[in-house]
Amino acid sequence: MKPRLKVLWLQGVTCNGNTHSFLNYPHLLYVLETFEFLYHSLLPSTYTLEEISTCVHECDILIFEGAYDPRMERVGTSLETLVGHYGSHAKYVIAAGSCASFGGMFKHSDPEHITGLGFDEKEPKGPFASSPKLINLSGCPMHPEWMGYTLRMIADNKPIAVDELHRPKELYSYLAHHGCTRNEYFEWKVDSDHFGTKEGCLFYKQGCRGPMTHASCNKILWNDVSSKTRAGSPCFGCTEPDFPRTNMFETKTNMSIPQDVPVGISKRSYLTMAGIAKSFHIPRLEKRLIDDNT
Amino acid sequence: MITRKWIERIEGEASVQFTFEQNKVSFATIAFPHFRGMEAILYLKPAMDALVITPRVCGICGHSHLFAAVRAIESVYANSGFPLEISPKAEMIRELTLSLELIQNHFKWLYMVIYPELSHLLQRPIADSCRLKGAYAASLATKVLAIFAGQWPHSSYMIPGGVTCDPTYVDTVRAMGILDELIRWFEKELTGISLEDYLNLSSAKDLSYVSGDMRDIDKMLRTAKMHKQGFSYDRYMVLGNHGFSNPSKYINRRIAKVNPKLVMLEDPYTVDEKTYAKNALYQNNAFETGPLARAVTNGVPFIKHLHRSFRDSTYTRIMARSYETALLLEHCKTLLQSLHLDEPSFIEPNKKITSISGEGIGIVEAPRGPLIHKVTLNKGIIDSYTLITPTQWNLSCGSPQTPGPAQKAMIGADSIETATFTFRSFDVCSVCTTH
Predict the structure, then answer these.
(1) Domain map of chain A by residue range?
(2) CB contact under 8 A, B8 and A50
(3) Chain-chain contact of A23 with B108 (C-beta, under 8 angstroms)
(4) Is the pTM here over 0.90, yes or no?
(5) Domain spanning A5-172: which superfamily?
(6) Nearest Cβ partner of B147 from A17, A225, A290?
(7) Given A16, A42, A228, which is nearest B151 (Cβ)?
(8) Record: contact B150-A11, CB cut-off 8 A
(9) B424 — alpha (psi -120 to 50), left (phi > 0) or beta?
(10) Which residues of chain A lie closer than 8 angstroms to B40, CB-CB?
């Protein structure tokens, strides 16, 4: 058996949501066979966190979950020391989730001091700012398959191309909108009147960020079965640097036109298309999807 | 002599300082060093944003936070004269997904914490793959949950007035299929007998019918004499109202009514150590919360029987949580079969949230016990938000005269290891305790 790559899973300012998301990964056995966890808060590990905090060990991959506050201590050692030591020896540093990537939810507990590992929202900042080692798996939480993909690519020595926010392109070039079961309603501009229905698009009123959010949630489904938009919830844009925004269940509009339009599409093109699509009256899309009367 | 021990693998860390007298633990303090300020993050946010923010209190019980938040906002509506109507379907789907979150929590705790820690205590190491059993079973539960909630962790599918999903029977049939698979797994791996037979156990003697991992855990607990230690106050508190719980307290061997208004917070007792956890008490008294509390106040026959024989020992506490998993699996099955999908998922509130002001309280039973969200809204904007989590009851840190439930349970332990194991029997969660 070839020696396993050494992984250390450290936590900063966090809710542990990425840890629990990853426990849903269907191929954990592969992960344990291929990687040795020096420490993980629930998976079998070689050392205790107390042993890790002495900083005498080294890892090949540092996975960091949670926002980065250099002053925060884990069992008596500051994150600055822990991340500095393990990160400098590691070949890869993986930010698990939006807090570790951009500051995320917990940046808001102390915006002056807290950042992600390499970004403060979208500005490069933090101990791994502009570091080629850094891979951001943003998302609140990140999808377990995204971590599974990244680890296996590393184990198999395959390159991982990343975007300007250090997110793997193969995962984050898609939009949450791609594969959404409400796509046809988006095309023909049929709004969802209210929550709790299969029908209608959540982009116009309910705050859905799907067309502006880089994430493969509707391609690689959550828990293998669904996604927010499939369950009638708007996408909150949790993989983007500006998560969490405010008023997340409402679409910001100017004169009833959505303030933000799909990524890479000019407002003028969008409005032209939307205007034409909206001018048609399409009875099929205005009825319930499954018609009780026929 | 005082010995400080970092307790890890508890959704963060706790620092416990043990005082020993005559080779036994005579007192222990519990401190939680991490703090995120969730309540401050919520301040001045639109009320609906609480449905996105509060699940992020905790990666393992975020769904319980979502449920408490939605109940709190609905209570503000009701208190300002606009009670919302929730369809029975939406109520049942909420209860189903909450129950599934409890199930995933219990499986992880049993297989990723209790089983390996117990084996370690008795120096009988178990295979690494054993921990993965917990993750596998939990992932089946969250799969069923996600069919309705879209994802787990961190869904926001419960909203004032109902739920966002609009399932078809294709979804419920799929959910039943996965739930059946989880029940079969439970029967094969954990109990070795059918769910029905396991639910029909009535006394400790009946445990001889059980095989599988539960048999091993039962035997090891007794070998480690866990039925003779870990006693706490034998006082229990349940505040969340569900099909699987009965809001009440158990004190002096009697079940009595409770009034959530009498829940109070107190600063923790500390010596030279910073902690961010406030103690939760009821009329100045410490109460244990969680599965054992729910079973005792709900009169679950098997657990009542164990409780009569072994009181609130570490053994009873662990058996109660394991047994609750079975009760909840059965409960989920019933809920899935009783859903009437022609009912509305969501009934739009008559009044916009931006015109709603007032106070509200939302209470649910989370995996570890009652979870309380209190909110004050001013025209739909959060003016104040208070979270009281179940671990603030169990892991409260009182003085030597008034120790909290877990503190009291550790007194008398003959080593740090056995005390720590008893500590873990409360299913410790650091992130919720301090939030």
Answers:
(1) 5-172, 174-287
(2) yes
(3) yes
(4) yes
(5) NADH:ubiquinone oxidoreductase-like, 20kDa subunit (3.40.50.700)
(6) A225
(7) A228
(8) no
(9) alpha
(10) 109
8 Å CB contact of A75 and B13: yes
Give pLDDT, residue A293.
Answer: 58
CB–CB contact B431 A44 (8 Å): no
Give one DSSP letter per residue of chain A, joined into a string: -PPPEEEEEEE-B--SHHHHHHTT-TTHHHHHHHEEEEE-SSS--SS-HHHHTT-----SEEEEESBB-TT-EETTEEHHHHHHHHHHH-SEEEEESHHHHH-HHHHTTSTTT-B-SSEETTEE-STTTT-TTEEEE-SSS--HHHHHHHHHHHHTT----B-TTS-BHHHHSSBTTTT-TTHHHHHTT-B-SSSS-SSSBSSSSS---GGG-B--TTTS-BTTTB-TGGGTPPP--TTSTT-S-SSTTS--EETTEESS-STT--HHHHHHHHHHHHHS--HHHHS-SS-TT-
Q: How many CB pairs under 8 A join A and B?
A: 192
CA distance B16 to chain A (A): 12
Chain-chain contact of A195 with B138 (C-beta, under 8 angstroms): no
Encode pLDDT of B100-124 as tens digits: 999 999 999 999 999 999 999 999 9
The answer to whether the beta carbons of residues B10 and B427 sit under 8 Å apart is no
On chain B, the residues whose CB falls within 8 A of the CB of A194 are: 346, 348
The answer to whether the CB atoms of A73 and B53 lie below 8 A apart is: no
CB-CB under 8 Å, A23 with B154: no
- Best mutation target, A10, A233, A251, to test chain B (most B CBs within 10 A): A233
Separation in Å, CA of A267 to nearest CA in chain B: 27
Q: Which domains does chain B have, with CATH numbers?
A: 2-434 (1.10.645.10)
DSSP string, B44-62: TSBGGGHHHHGGGG-TTTH
pLDDT digits (tens, 9 = 90+) for B31-73: 999 999 999 999 999 999 999 999 999 999 999 999 999 999 9
Task: Tell if the CB–CB gap between A195 and B162 is shorter than 8 Å.
Answer: yes
DSSP β-ladder status, A77-78 and A73-74: antiparallel
Task: Confirm whether the ipTM is greater than 0.90.
Answer: yes
Is the pLDDT reported for residue A292 higher than 80? Answer: no
What is the rounded average pLDDT of the residues B25-35?
A: 94
Q: A174-287: which CATH architecture?
A: Irregular (4.10)
> Which residues in chain A are closer than 8 Å to B33, comparing Cβ atoms?
73
The whole-angstrom distance between A266's CA and the closest CA on chain B is 29
pLDDT digits (tens, 9 = 90+) for B266-309: 999 988 888 999 999 999 999 999 999 999 999 999 999 999 99
Note the Cα B5 to chain centre separation in Å: 25
